Automatic annotation (TrEMBL):
SUPFAM superfamilies found in the cross-reference section: ABC transporter transmembrane region, P-loop containing nucleoside triphosphate hydrolases
Domain ABC transporter: 354-589
InterPro entries the UniProt entry points to: AAA+_ATPase, ABC1_TM_dom, ABC1_TM_sf, ABC_transporter-like_ATP-bd, ABC_transporter-like_CS, P-loop_NTPase, Type_1_exporter
Keyword Oxidoreductase attributed: no
Residues of the ABC transmembrane type-1 domain: 33-318
PROSITE patterns: ABC_TM1F, ABC_TRANSPORTER_1, ABC_TRANSPORTER_2
This protein's UniProt keywords: ATP-binding, Cell membrane, Membrane, Nucleotide-binding, Transmembrane, Transmembrane helix, Transport
Alphabetized GO MF terms: ABC-type oligopeptide transporter activity; ATP binding; ATP hydrolysis activity
Protein location: Cell membrane
Protein name: Multidrug ABC transporter ATPase
Main localisation: membrane
Membrane topology: Multi-pass membrane protein
Length: 590
């Protein structure tokens, strides 16, 4: 958790600037200008009240002019009505603008995260990502709607009221405005205190979100129950929640004593104004009673928007912490990028030839290369198996083939084209992946299958399920293909999930099929049936099988044996078994 003030100051300095925040509002400048105009108009109309009040006290009442009194009172009512109507319209427009900006920011952050490499997600808690998309952007809700609206309204009200006060009596105005510098300084000090606390608060909220996501999922509950760690997890959650509660209190109360001085100064201003008016009367340069009453009324109109401005300034500084966390993710570099002029291979021209040319790759953990100088040619339509002991680099090689990481040296080519030159859509059409840990969406079986091809017909979907040996099971369910699979597919067994994932890939019909331990969760009978199905499916299709169970790869055209990131043996099952090397050792251990 990054919660040290120095860390936060560095993060905010690197990622947040006023210009960058204002750019979020740029697409809506015309609508913002319209709201600003309404704010100024409402403030100007609202200023008519005190001047009409002065005329009532100094002219209409002393002269007992009933007609003038009615007109002036009616003018005050009309001004109040117009100001209220314009204010309501302005609030509606402001709310729409604010929500549009939040929507843009939320989608922009989600889209950016979609482009990051697997490296980012393997090193980041999913709860932390969720906290920044949901929690931090939700924290900007008040800034983009209520605060922005109140800022414009209060700013226009303060400016217009200040002008009116000067026009009423410049001497009393000077006395009133002397209080401004002191209150601004106090407000800025309190804002700085609360900004750093807000950053710590959001970081701890992310810890809370991660704890919930990790432990209140089906795998988390199973782990806690089987390990008897439920009470410990509850204690850990309570500790995080208690820290968050304490930070919430400190964030809302830091500098409260200094802030109370502002309230005191503003509360005493009317009394001091009357005292100043009395001193002017005593000096022989008296202001009229109507002027004093109007001045007090204008002060009332000035004080609440001015106090709101100070509060907005204080609270807006807190949102800088939220922007720092959001922009930090937006500034994460995109490692896997598409060329400006990417290569597109039409589906009818895809053959499925794969070539690895001196490929090397290392993770950022400093443990050396996970794949080291691997060269391999896989003819179109052939079946190649990649085997090796745990940690040999075979799964990493699968990641590189799917371009979840980019190679650090060498090149991988599909049909003679470097993966880095292919259009993303073309790559996804060429290569279908079934991983060791298949992921299913919390949706129906049909929606999970059609995730690969939304336009697929029901007949095509059923055909793919039959090939994957899962159709009979789905058809026997009460709701058939409309059955909800549950979060992570927990309504299905491990083997059923893998067959659903295989059916999903089959539905996409790629010329290259990458099976990463795809049959590891299947029982022997189902594995045999599925192997027969795959044999039919593999005709005319390049199949790359990454396997730990050697029984699944005996019939491969070529078996590639990896050890410590390098290819150490290649050949057929019979050739490698007879050679007495690494493969023979793996075979003896099964």
């Amino acid at each position: 958790m990054t919660d040290e003030p120095d860390d936060y100051d560095d993060l905010a300095a690197r990622h947040v600037s006023m210009r960058r925040v204002l750019r979020l509002f740029a697409p809506y400048r015309a609508r913002i200008a319209a709201v600003g105009t309404l704010m100024i108009l409402a403030s100007a109309i609202g200023l008519a009240g005190p001047f009409l009040l002065r005329a009532i006290i100094d002219i209409a009442l002393p002269q007992q002019d009933l007609s003038l009194l009615i007109w002036l009172a009616g003018g005050m009512i009309a001004a109040a009505l117009a100001s209220a109507g314009i204010g309501a319209l302005q609030i509606v427009l402001s709310a729409r603008i604010g929500q549009a900006i939040l929507h843009d920011l939320r989608v922009r952050l989600y889209a950016h995260l979609q482009t990051l490499s697997l490296r980012f997600f393997t090193g980041t808690r999913s709860g932390e990502v969720q906290s920044r998309i949901a929690g931090d952007i939700a924290g900007l809700q008040s800034l983009m709607t209520d605060t922005a609206n109140e800022l414009g309204r209060s700013l226009s009200a303060v400016a217009m009221t200040a002008v009116a006060i000067v026009l009423l009596d410049w001497r009393l105005a000077l006395f009133v405005l002397l209080i401004v510098p002191m209150t601004v300084l106090i407000s800025a000090r309190v804002a700085r205190l609360r900004e750093a606390l807000t950053f710590q608060q959001q970081a701890r909220a992310a810890d809370l979100s991660a704890a919930v996501q990790e432990t209140l999922s089906a795998p988390g509950i199973i782990l806690a129950r089987t390990m008897g760690r439920g009470p410990w997890l509850t204690q850990r959650f309570a500790r995080i929640s208690r820290d968050l509660a304490q930070l919430e209190v400190r964030s809302h109360t830091a500098g409260e004593w200094q802030w109370s001085l502002i309230g005191f100064a503003l509360a005493t201003l009317p009394a001091l104004t009357l005292l100043a008016g009395g001193l002017l009367m005593h000096s022989g340069t008296a202001a009229s009673i109507g002027t004093l009453v109007a001045m007090i009324a204008l002060q009332e109109q000035l004080l609440w928007p001015f106090e709101q401005l100070l509060e907005i300034g204080r609270d807006t500084r807190k949102t800088r912490a939220l922007f720092a966390r959001i922009f930090d993710y937006l500034d994460k570099p995109v490692e896997i990028t598409e060329r400006t002029d990417p290569v597109t291979i039409p589906r009818s021209e895809m053959r499925g030839a794969v070539q690895l040319d001196h490929v090397s790759f290392a993770y950022a953990d400093g443990r050396g290369p996970a794949v080291n100088d691997v060269s391999l040619t896989i003819p179109a339509g052939s079946h190649v198996a990649i085997v090796g002991p745990t940690g040999s680099g075979k799964t990493t090689l699968g990641y590189l083939l799917a371009r979840l990481y980019d190679v650090e040296a060498g090149a991988i080519r599909f049909d003679g084209v470097d993966l880095r030159d292919l259009r993303f859509v073309t790559l996804s059409q060429m290569l279908g992946v079934v991983s060791q840990e298949p992921y299913l969406l919390h949706a129906s079986v049909a929606e999970n299958l059609r995730f690969a091809r939304p336009e697929a017909t029901e007949a095509e979907m059923i055909a793919a399920a039959k090939v994957a040996q899962i159709h009979d099971h789905i058809a026997a369910l009460p709701e058939g293909y409309d059955t909800l699979v549950g979060e992570g597919g927990f309504r299905f067994s491990g083997g059923e999930k893998q067959r659903l994932a295989l059916a999903r890939t089959i539905l996409r019909d790629p010329p290259i099929l990458l099976l990463d331990e795809a049959t590891s969760a299947l029982d022997t009978r189902t594995e045999r049936a599925m192997s027969e199905a795959l044999e039919g499916l593999s005709k005319g299709r390049t199949t790359i099988t990454i396997a730990h169970r050697l029984s699944t790869v005996r019939d491969a055209d070529l078996i590639v044996v990896m050890q410590r990131g390098q290819v150490v043996e290649t050949g057929t099952h019979a050739q490698l078994a007879a050679r007495g090397g690494v493969y023979a050792g793996l075979l003896a251990g099964t």
